[in-house]
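I am writing to request your help with a piece of structural work I have in hand. Here, with my thanks, is the record as I have it:
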Amino acid sequence: MQLDAGVSSSGGTADESAVNKYDRFLKWLLDNGAHFPLLELREYESDVRGVHAKEALAGDQVVVEIPLRCLITVEMGKESDVGKAVLASNLPLDAPKHIFLMLFMLTDRRNPSSFFKPYYDILPSSLSNMPIFWTDEELAYLKGSHLLTQIEERKRAIEADYAAIADVAPSLPSICSVEEFKWARMCVCSRNFGLEVNRIRTAALVPYADMLNHQRPRETKWTFDNARQAFTITTLQPIAPGAQVYDSYGQKCNHRFLLNYGFAVENNREADNFCPNEVGLWQERARKGERERGTMG
């Protein structure tokens, strides 16, 4: 499966290398039983890509099937040496499921013969779109926003998790630096899927499925199909040939999109015209009333 012509070749060796890593990734998936014959990847610029329909897609059609063996699950992280130390210590971590996914990925990607190497190779090397990695100059654009507080809280929580895990698993600093730990946290935060796999509630990194961009209202749905033993994406409506195929990351306000995914939606409104960014006046009045009652009491 070759990448679409949307991948530029004008840059020579660097661009050819980028195309080759995607070809290796797609071949790895196909060799291990994945199916997505009606879809193709398009890269718009470096590390910016999407999934498009190669031909017209019908509604209620399974268009992606990724077998279980290609998924990275929470349970795999728990089985790692550092994961076992974390479990034994019962640490109060900020996002435990994310942590176990991170621990597996950070440990396993150091192995040049890892089964998942083709997947690791196509992950972004930097996440400069994520606010926790922004410069002071970039953060200045958020002056007056509560998001600045949330960004600082996220940074402190990740750093605290790193220090706590390093205390119970001294090998952690040899596996990753705190900056690599932050990178992994945001990779997992923006890419993981909450699933039920063989009656076990878990979370997973799902190669290829995590390349679908966000749009509302949703036009696809996903699940883990126990009969197929695979993660599947199914269309909810017909999709035109050449059109981008989207996932929905859920109904969220823009501060959550920006903090967790590194983007904001310009017109963030639902089909019924509800805007998740807005705080209703009645809510503000209710909170004000509660404060006043608290003062009077």
Summary: The longest strand covers residues 39-45. Residues 1-14, 290-297 have pLDDT under 50 and may be disordered. The chain has two domains: 1-65+214-297, 72-205.
